[in-house]
Design brief:
Shape: elongated
Helix content: under 10%
Radius of gyration: 14 Å
Number of strands: 11
Strand content: over 45%
């Protein structure tokens, strides 16, 4: 089975920085795209960033220029470096990965989320 675990969330002041991590573990043969989503209270979940297996990134307009996604394939880990954080960035951040589990084939997996709170 495959599990995703996010970490790195916390409380930060506006203008500060945070680096989120998402580590995948389990019966993994390959990982294709990975992504970060976030959901603020009372709002819909939104896509924040994606990163392909080759490291090609795309960002939502709301974080473009302030965020950098990266991955370490040897560690099955994806990162999201967020700078110049704003109160609007406050949300639970979820990791998603398209993973080939040797038992079940390709499927999408989600972590439990990590809370990011940005104070003004």
């Amino acid at each position: 089975q495959v599990q995703l675990v996010e970490s790195g969330g916390g409380l930060v002041q506006a203008g500060g920085s945070l680096r989120l991590s998402c580590a995948a573990s389990g019966s993994i043969l390959a990982i294709n795209d990975m992504g970060w989503y976030r959901q603020a209270p009372g709002k819909q979940r939104e896509l924040v960033a994606t990163i392909t297996a080759g490291g090609i990134t795309n960002y939502a307009d709301s974080v473009k220029g302030r965020s950098t996604g990266s991955r370490d394939n040897a560690k099955n880990t994806v990162y999201l470096q967020m700078n110049s954080l704003e109160p609007e960035d406050t949300a639970v951040y979820y990791c998603n990965a398209n993973v080939y589990d040797w038992r079940t084939g390709w499927d999408d997996y989600w972590g439990q989320g990590t809370q990011v709170t940005v104070s003004s």
